[in-house]
Amino acid sequence: MLGFKPVRRRDPLPWGSFLVFAGALALCLAISELLLVLQGKPLFQGLYLLWDGGFAHGYSLEDTVIKAMPIYLCALGVAVSFRMQIWNIGAEGQFAMGAIGATWAALNFSGLPAWMLLPLMLCGAALTGGLWALFPALLRVRYGVNEIIVTLMGNYIAILVLDYLVYGPWKDPVSFGFPMTPEFTDAAIIGLLPGTRIHWGIAICLGVSFLLWVFLRRTRLGYELKASGEGVKPALYAHMPYAGLVMLVMTLCGVLAGWAGAMEASATVNRLQPSIMVGYGYTAVVVAWLARLRISSIAFYSFLLAGLRVGVENLQLELQVPAAFGGILEGSLLLTVLAGQFFEKYKLVPARGGKNA
Amino acid sequence: MSMVSQLLEATIQAGTPILYATLGEIVAERSGVLNLGVEGMMIVGALAGFAVSYTTGNPWLGVFAAGLAGMLLASVHGTVCLVFQGNQVVSGLALTIFGVGLANFLGAPLVGVTTAGFSNAPIPILESIPVLGRALFSHDVLVYISFALPLLLWLFLERTSLGLSLRSAGQNPEASAAVGLNPVAMRWLGTLTGGFLAGVGGAYLSLAATHMWTNSMTAGRGWIAVALVIFAFWRPGRAIFGAYLFGAAMSLQLRLQAMGANVPSSFLHMLPYALTVLVLVVSGVRGRGRAAPAALGVNIEPSE
């Protein structure tokens, strides 16, 4: 490699994952800055707006937390499935299906009080999101069908189902032609924490974190799940019910992403409309991998990428930068982290004596 | 002109961009590199092809630029996976997120303009064959090239020593290196070829199928191409069937919509995506996943 030769480190690089992430973030921000300057935007103003929009003060931090919650729920499920080397890219579709399930409950049982309706909506979301994820899992374990592509196609299909519903049977008769359902009744809306714009969905996130921790650390099934993270062969040697675990993990992922969708529909827009689909499911994939699939790190990276998303909205507003800029940030961050992980395992030493392998 | 002939013609046009991308991914995967960035490479190709054709007025320069743009993006995947040992699945996904973002970002000022692009160049005599003549030989030049490409790639993979070397990098890179071949170089060749063809497939959308650029215009075709590689059992010849099957689904969907079919358009739009799942299940039931190159997706660790 250009006069250098990779040598495997005896001990892992101290602070390796932190150094790699810091380096990757710097590189990715440099690429973004370059793109902005090439587009004729003023030097460094873009980066300042990114920071200012996402992290700099209370109002922006509230926005960031609101966006971090759905990303967090989706990323937990994605990370658990990635650990098993089940490449579930379907959080986006499961999110849409969850929003649909919750909306179905909200529209059909609007007379119920909140303490009954909200749990019913979450049940609806768990059912639709979970079943949507179970389908590719069944195809995978029954016929060996590639789950990456089936879950991806599922995303496209789920979004089209959502479109069909809001343009068709669920359309608000007084929406002046806009594709949206009627606004939810108060009982179907997750309320706000007193004095903030943050909704009680944060309690759902905390509850899910606790239950997941108990499940992975304190139950036999959770232990097997962690162990089968090494892949299918070790799991089978240890006589673990691999097919069952795959279906369980995918369903879990679907339920969590479904709840994220329900939260967005209920708390953030108060109805079902196509604009709730902003790609949280794909951001969750980025978050899961940046967190190295560690459950404990996912909250931090969800917060960080949510902040970048809010920052990009600020850029859009102030500098007329297209929203697609967010994809560039997320994609290049993930690519540079992937490449950077090399330096945790290897160091480069100058190659002696001409060419090297 | 008969209805059948019209539908066949539309089928081939809709299938062509998918065919290019599928053939490219077949070459990449035969060399052992799983590149899930096809969607990203296609859309960057669609933009680069359109932008260059629009500024120079020369569609051929556009196609070439599209191929280079796809290749450039593929070289990012190559750098991450072949040099820095990154996970191929995640790198490909990241490449798609990055590519779609980049194309929509850079393409924003070009929305709403048109360029001449490619027009139909019917082949004289052949065109007048009843039914099939019109369907097969009344297209633009990129379609004719795509007719020859599967044969050329088959000859390359199966009948040349370079092709053998490339396939050995996908089957058993250690053995390949042991007999003095360079599997890493072969993987670079596969990755870059794949990127070039995906880029050209994207350019077909913006320069031939339509003559404009719109945001996210590939609409999942790159992912369909990845699925078709499995359906084609990694063989260039079979990719033709797959690509035109999708071409048929897409043109049928448009036709039904135009005829005012009593089906909500959302359901018609689902057709290609649902078909992809169906096609994968059929390939899965027939158990041909085993046709995959043995070292597909497995990185070659650096020797010390």
From TrEMBL, chain A:
Cellular compartments annotated: Cell membrane
Membrane topology: Multi-pass membrane protein
InterPro entries, alphabetized: ABC_transp_permease (IPR001851)
Signal peptide: none
A Gene Ontology molecular function term of the record: transmembrane transporter activity
GO cellular component, one term: plasma membrane
Origin species: Oceanidesulfovibrio indonesiensis
Keyword match Transmembrane: yes
Pfam families: BPD_transp_2 (PF02653)
Keywords: Cell membrane, Membrane, Transmembrane, Transmembrane helix
Keyword tRNA processing in annotation: no
Membrane spanning residue stretches: 12-38, 64-82, 113-135, 147-167, 198-216, 236-260, 272-291
Lineage of the organism: Bacteria, Pseudomonadati, Thermodesulfobacteriota, Desulfovibrionia, Desulfovibrionales
Entry superkingdom: Bacteria
Protein name: ABC transporter permease
TrEMBL record, chain B:
Compartments reported by the entry: Cell membrane
InterPro entries to which the protein is assigned, alphabetical: ABC_transp_permease
Transmembrane segments: 33-54, 60-84, 93-116, 136-157, 188-207, 213-234, 241-260, 266-285
Domain of life of the source: Bacteria
Keyword list, A-Z: Cell membrane, Membrane, Transmembrane, Transmembrane helix
GO cellular component: plasma membrane
Membrane disposition: Multi-pass membrane protein
GO molecular function: transmembrane transporter activity
Protein name from the UniProt record: ABC transporter permease
